[in-house]
Fold:
Amino acid sequence: HAGYYLSNWNGLLGLYPGVFGLKIAYTQAAGYSTIVLSNRNDIRLAVLLTGADSLIKRDTAAALLLDEAFASEGLPRANLTQAALKRQYKIWDDFIKKTKAALQNSN
Structure:
């Protein structure tokens, strides 16, 4: 069958402790948006965020909301930095480029 690739542009998945689910979106009217699900110490949270100007602002704002909510329950903040998010985006971007190249070479 034909090859395909799936990319992921939610920096919190695999980086923010406890994040296990999400949905990302972009529309001109709503900007960069996300729904993030996280579970730490049996405390489950959902963050819904819309209107961010960029991926980095979206993921940073969502991480801050998670930090505030978990801290209100006595759990430590993750203190996710923009540098950590940018490293994650770079890893994914490199992977996407390699995957696209491999698919093009297989045809």
The chain has two helices and three strands. Residues 47 and 62 are 7 Å apart (CA to CA).
